[in-house]
TrEMBL record:
Keywords: ATP-binding, Kinase, Nucleotide-binding, Transferase. This is Serine/threonine-protein kinase Nek10. GO terms for biological process: regulation of cell cycle G2/M phase transition. InterPro entries: ARM-like, ARM-type_fold, Armadillo, Kinase-like_dom_sf, NEK_Ser/Thr_kinase, Prot_kinase_dom, Protein_kinase_ATP_BS. PROSITE patterns: PROTEIN_KINASE_ATP, PROTEIN_KINASE_DOM. It holds the Pfam family Pkinase. It comes from Larimichthys crocea (Large yellow croaker). It comes from the Eukaryota. One of its GO terms (molecular function) is ATP binding. The keyword Membrane does not apply.
Length: 693
């Protein structure tokens, strides 16, 4: 072929030479344009013939599919006939051979999934057939085949129950054969129709009875072939049956819940998780949780919460949350000293675990003694820390059904259930946890001492920050209502009310008061949330400044002889009392400031000095000799300028008159034991008059 250069092409001057060059360039192998076009059309014709060829080949596919479908039907019939045989050894061997043949062809005779015939039908459906009648015929055949397939599976389920579960076969068959039967049942009851059929055949009771016998041997011997796998399979089946609400009574009537509770003492993580998932699904019904609560379940749950892996802890906490509304469960938690265990979990990082623990505490707060115990164990500080800290949390999206399926299939991830959540999911989970913490603090506020303790721990400032508008969303809006409710409960304690006068602007404070004392209904606080949501940026800045003003961690007002003045507690006849903290320590103390220019100490300097020496001497004697739990401790006395300062123990609590007002608002009364516990030398006669009236 002659080589043509750009120079030659550009330099062509005559039309004849230019046409000749074009012919050489655009006609490969010196073919004429007509010949080249002829070859191109021939190739196109060749390409266009391929779909027809493929379509003709595709017409042969249904024949192969029908053959595979016939093989599947044959396997089902074969399996059904094997299950009717009386000799256990023959049928087990035959069953194994049948399964082996099925697996060699990529089939499982019991799986209710689409067969290769279905996949072949889908592949050929993309090709247009000359007649719609063939397509309709295939669809009708497919529907009939599916119905036949389902009917045979129902027959297989019936045979499994009648000829396996309720016969002597299950007691004498090899463990691996029994496990195969249980796996077949597990696969079959994924169909809701088969779950009802299992109940009609009394299969649930038979299954519960067999699980009880396996559990007894498993717990006593701790070594039995395939026992753990069988228990995992059976716990999955009971969890699956419990998903439908009206089927949970079937499980309770079978007594399976008693065996599931026994399995909580096992050390096998898969068996334990299977039992937890089944019980958690079961406990979602009020009637079922009552039945479960009558069993000794709390002790096992507390052990799991202390010693087991994160996933087991999470599911145990969720199960305990569902059961905690029952008073027997709350009583068991108190008797078994479970409160410290629950509070220790608040140091964790998993959002769903923390959320479950918080709602358990809400239920436990119904008892006044438990509220006191939560405060004494440092629960208030931990809850406020969850509201204010920037802790890095972890979480997951795993549902109970997904975990149950993964556990039964042996695909559970044991290390940690941590997933990368989207920013919105992380916000929603965090807001849900904060709402739960606010609810616990709300219930704790019913106790006046606990309410005052929340205020002392800077709770007003921490909770008030949650009422500020944040990211939009229903959960964030709900959190604002939760925060307003907690603040309103704290305001109901008379001693705390001075803080709120500085916290809210006048219009918001009026709405805040109008809600009333101790109103639990969140709808009552929606007006407050709406009011704040319509604030301008300037109004929000003013509210933020007010919140910062009640922050008890702000710099001290002043420092006196190494003591930081944090708050003014009150003023009496001889001076004022402040809440202070020593600069080199963390303990809160009371500092009494006495003005020596008071006429009581003398009219001249000499008499004042003499009286001050007597006071200091008397305080020294009290400090050295008066040591009693009910007597306020004196730590130090010093003079600064013309004032006498006395450092004393800070007694947290509220005045007796405020106790009376609080009880009146709650429509409660003093008990006799409580009356005897509040007598001390500092009570005024007016207090006793109110007490005895």
């Amino acid at each position: 072929m002659r080589r043509v250069t750009p120079t030659a092409l550009n330099g062509a001057t005559s039309g004849r030479r230019r046409r000749r060059l074009q012919k050489l360039v655009f006609s490969p192998n010196r073919l004429s344009a007509a010949s080249w076009r002829k070859g191109y059309s021939w190739k196109q014709k060749l390409k266009m013939s391929n779909p027809v060829k493929k379509a003709r080949q595709g017409e042969k596919l249904p024949l192969k599919s029908r053959g595979i479908q016939s093989k599947t039907s044959y396997d089902l019939r074969r399996l059904q006939s094997l299950l009717i045989k009386a000799n256990p050894r023959q049928e087990v061997a035959a069953l194994s051979q049948s399964k082996a043949r099925s697996r060699s062809q990529g089939l499982h005779p019991l799986l209710l999934r689409k067969t290769p015939a279905d996949r072949g039908a889908r592949a050929t459906s993309a090709v247009k057939h000359p007649s719609w009648k063939n397509s309709a015929s295939r669809t009708e055949t497919k529907d009939v085949s599916a119905a036949t397939h389902c009917t045979r599976c129902s027959h297989i389920l019936t045979s499994l129950v009648k000829n396996r579960l309720c016969s002597e076969w299950i007691d004498h068959a090899p463990p691996e054969s029994v496990l195969r039967v249980l796996i077949c049942l597990r696969l079959l009851i994924r169909d809701p129709h088969h779950q009802k059929l299992l109940h009609q055949l009394q299969g649930i009771s038979l299954l519960a009875r067999y699980m009880e016998s396996v559990t007894a041997m498993y717990i006593s011997c701790d070594e039995q072939a395939f026992a753990a796998q069988k228990l995992v399979t059976m716990t999955y089946m009971f969890q699956k049956l419990s998903v439908v609400e009206n089927q949970r009574v079937w499980v309770i009537e079978s007594g399976a819940h008693r065996t599931l509770v026994k399995l909580l003492s096992t050390t096998d993580s898969s068996v334990l998780l299977g039992a937890l998932l089944a019980l958690t699904t079961l406990a979602e019904s009020p009637e079922c949780k009552e039945e479960i609560s009558e069993l000794p379940i709390v002790e096992n749950l507390l052990v799991i919460l202390q010693e087991y892996d994160l996933l087991s802890k999470r599911m145990s906490a969720e199960l305990l949350r569902l059961l905690s509304p029952v008073w027997q469960v709350r009583e068991q938690v108190r008797e078994l000293e479970g409160l410290p265990v629950l509070l220790s979990l608040l140091y964790g990082q998993h959002l769903k675990l923390l959320w479950s623990v918080a709602w358990i505490l809400v239920q436990l707060c119904e008892d006044a003694d438990t509220r006191t115990e939560i405060r004494s164990w440092g629960g208030v500080q931990q809850l406020l820390r969850l509201l204010s800290s920037d802790r890095q949390y972890v979480s997951d999206r795993s549902s109970i059904d997904a975990l149950s399926s993964a556990n039964a299939a042996g695909r559970i991830q044991r290390e940690h259930i941590r997933e990368e959540l989207s920013p919105q999911e992380e916000v929603d989970n965090t807001v849900a946890l904060q709402s739960a913490c606010c609810t616990v603090l709300t219930e704790l506020s019913l106790d006046d001492t606990s309410a005052h303790h929340i205020v002392q721990e800077n709770g007003v400032c921490i909770i008030a920050k949650l009422i500020l508008p944040q990211n939009s969303g229903p959960k964030v809006t709900s959190l604002q209502c939760y925060a307003f409710r907690t603040l309103r409960f704290l305001f109901s304690v008379e001693r705390n009310r001075h803080l709120f006068k500085r916290l809210f602007p006048t219009d918001l404070f009026e709405l805040f008061i109008d809600v009333g004392h101790y109103v639990r209904d969140l709808a009552a606080y929606e007006g407050l949330q709406t009011k704040v949501s319509f604030y301008t940026e300037e109004e929000l800045d003013s509210l933020r400044e007010s919140i910062e003003a009640v922050d008890q961690n702000r710099p001290p007002l002043k420092v006196i002889n190494g003591y930081s003045i944090l708050d003014h507690l009150g003023t009496g006849a001889f001076g004022s009392v402040f809440k202070v903290r020593k600069q080199s320590g963390q303990n809160l103390l009371a500092l009494k400031e006495v003005n020596l220019h008071n006429p009581v100490f003398g009219k001249d300097k000499k008499s004042r000095d003499s009286n001050v020496e007597k006071i200091i001497s008397e305080l020294t004697i009290i400090k050295e000799q008066m040591t009693h739990p009910n007597v306020v401790k004196y730590y130090k006395t010093f003079l600064e300028g013309d004032k006498l300062y006395i450092v004393m123990e800070l007694i947290e609590g509220v005045p007796l008159a405020e106790h009376f007002n609080s009880l009146k608002e709650k429509q409660q009364q003093f008990t006799e034991d409580r009356i005897w516990n509040i007598f001390h030398s500092g009570n005024k006669p007016q207090s006793f008059e109110k007490l005895m009236s």
